[in-house]
């Protein structure tokens, strides 16, 4: 993973993990051990889904830049739909507190997306490739005077 991608991941994952840790602590205080377990599973699931999505999006940007915007929109829709399916599937579970699971999942996802938007806004992204000017020798096409 290039250092720029790793730095971007750190700027996004750290706030999301911190929000998940807060959700685990609050769930433990409110709903006990099952609440803490549910919040931990929800946080882990959100970070895993969003991390894989970020990796796929960065891969798409490098290899197929013409599909980047469409892939981003499709990816976010798929992620939110899959997270909604997980909430529906675990709604009636007795292994952990499903409300703590759902709250942690939503909070971590929202913090991840906000941190990703902030990281993108603060990134210095070239809209002109500076290396292309160095590699191509310019030839004079007009008359020289």
Record the SSE blueprint.
Blueprint: H1 3-63, H2 68-89, H3 98-122, H4 130-135
Helix pairs in contact: 1-2, 1-3
Keywords: Membrane, Transmembrane, Transmembrane helix
Organism: Streptomyces bungoensis
Protein name: ATP synthase I
Your description of this structure?
- With 145 residues, the protein is mainly α.
- It has one domain (3-123).
- It has 4 helices and no strands.
- The chain has helices at 3-63, 68-89, 98-122, 130-135.
- It is elongated, with a radius of gyration of 21 Å.
- The model has no long low-confidence stretch (mean pLDDT 84).
Task: List the total number of helices.
Answer: 4
Helix content: over 70%
Q: What low-confidence regions span 5 or more consecutive residues with pLDDT below 50?
A: none
Mean model confidence by pLDDT: 84
Order of helices and strands: HHHH
The outline comes out as elongated
Largest sheet: none
The end-to-end span amounts to: 50 Å
Secondary structure class reads mainly alpha
| Oligomeric nature of the chains | single chain
Q: What's the Cα radius of gyration?
A: 21 Å
Number of domains: 1
């Amino acid at each position: 993973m290039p250092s720029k991608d790793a730095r971007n991941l750190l700027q996004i994952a750290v706030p999301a993990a911190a929000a998940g840790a807060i959700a685990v602590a609050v769930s433990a205080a409110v709903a006990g051990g099952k609440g803490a377990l549910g919040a931990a599973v929800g946080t882990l699931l959100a970070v895993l889904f969003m991390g894989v999505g970020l990796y796929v999006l960065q891969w798409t940007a490098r290899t197929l830049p013409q599909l980047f915007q469409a892939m981003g929109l499709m990816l976010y829709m798929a992620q939110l739909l899959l997270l909604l399916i997980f909430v529906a599937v675990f709604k009636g579970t007795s292994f952990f507190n499903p409300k703590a699971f759902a709250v942690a999942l939503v909070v971590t996802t929202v913090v991840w997306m906000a941190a990703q938007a902030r990281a993108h806004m603060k990134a210095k992204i070239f809209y002109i490739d500076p290396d292309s000017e160095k590699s191509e020798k310019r030839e004079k096409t007009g008359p020289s005077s």
